[in-house]
Specification:
Blueprint (H helix, E strand, L loop, with lengths): L6 E13 L6 E13 L3 E5 L6 H8 L7 E6 L7 H4 L2 E4 L11 H11 L4 H14 L15 H13 L5 E5 L7 H17 L2 E5 L3 H7 L2 E6 L2 E7 H5 L4 E7 L3 H7 L3 E5 L2 E7 H13 L3 E7 L3 H9 L6
Parallel strand pairs: 3-7, 3-8, 5-6, 6-7
Antiparallel strand pairs: 1-2, 1-4, 8-9, 10-12, 10-13, 11-12
Helix pairs in contact: 3-4, 4-5, 9-10
Length: about 300
């Protein structure tokens, strides 16, 4: 592995075992994992609880050392300062100082990362506005909702314009509007050339934003394929309607509908798709993704269903 490679993330044979000091037994979290993420791609890393996703992410961040195997970011050790400066990370549950305002919290993270003062001054308001937190910039974080704190966590990950974004469940606690905002930001970052490594349980968000999906099961890769290949070969379609209103529901007619909280997922044939989309738009429906089936959920259940440990 060298720094000249086009791969931003390279993982070869990564194995990690945890040992319980009380029960005197070993638990292998990840076993012989191989992974390669090319520059500029958005890659989803999905799997049930206990599959090894968080262990892998912590190893990518240099917080855990492999028992066996090798990990390189930008051709370098993930624990090197040079690699870490090029990474932005958002944890599943973002913790920060409640006594700080949103603006001061981001300034703190910028200073912690040794960003120049002029860049901090420009980046803080830009990222707060981008995440819909501009009006709350002077408010103390202790008064923020869970969704606002998550958006602040994403703002800190983006603050220094990283080359690699590692996002661990970035839409946890967000409402549909917040989820849509995060998806838009991921796509904006892709356009900018950023590589994104996304761990998420919300498969519709994965389908909306990602180029490639890796499904992890019991510490090993069970499935890895580009989203373009996954979507191909079917004449059945799914249409996502966000915050589905009564008027939008009336326009659906007798199509097959699956509820997803305030959203609905409609399955129809290719011959019915255009007419259904036209009726939905006439009903002022908010259209999310439009995709061929089989859906990612189908593949997920095939390769990872029934293996959750939590």
């Amino acid at each position: 592995m060298s720094e000249n490679t086009s791969a931003i993330i390279e993982v070869e044979g990564f194995t990690k075992t945890f040992r319980s000091r009380f029960r005197r037994r070993s638990v292998r979290a990840v076993s012989d994992l191989n992974l390669r993420v090319e520059r500029g791609n958005v890659v989803a890393f999905v799997g049930p609880n206990g599959a090894g996703k968080t262990t892998t992410i912590y190893a990518l961040l240099g917080l855990l050392n492999p028992d066996r195997g090798q990990i390189r970011l930008f051709g370098m050790s993930p624990s090197s300062e040079a690699a870490r400066r090029r990474i932005g990370f958002q944890s599943e549950i973002f913790h920060t100082y409640g006594f700080k305002t949103a603006e001061r919290a981001l300034r703190f993270y910028g200073e912690l990362g040794e960003m120049p003062a002029a860049k901090i001054a420009a980046a803080v308001p830009r990222q707060l506005d981008r995440l819909g937190l501009g009006a709350a910039s002077k408010r103390k974080v202790r008064g923020f909702s869970k969704g606002m704190i998550q958006r602040l966590g994403l703002a800190q990950a983006l603050l220094h314009a990283p080359e690699l974004l590692i996002l661990d469940e970035p839409t946890t606690g967000l409402d549909p509007e917040g989820r849509k905002l995060v998806a838009e930001i991921i796509l904006e970052e892709k356009t900018r050339g950023t590589t994104v490594f996304l761990s998420s349980h919300i498969l519709s968000d994965v389908e909306r934003t990602c180029d490639h999906v890796v499904i992890l099961r019991e510490g090993t890769v069970a499935f890895s394929q580009s989203m373009a290949s996954l979507r191909g070969g079917s004449d059945e379609w799914e249409i996502e309607v966000l915050n589905c209103t009564a008027r939008a529901r009336e326009s659906i007619g007798g199509a097959n509908v699956r509820e997803q909280g305030p959203d609905v997922l409609i399955r129809c044939s290719g011959s019915d798709k255009n007419g259904l989309l036209r009726r939905l738009l006439e009903a002022d429906a908010e259209i999310g993704m439009v995709r061929r089936t089989r859906s990612l959920e189908d593949f997920y259940m095939q390769y990872a269903g029934g293996s959750s440990h939590g």
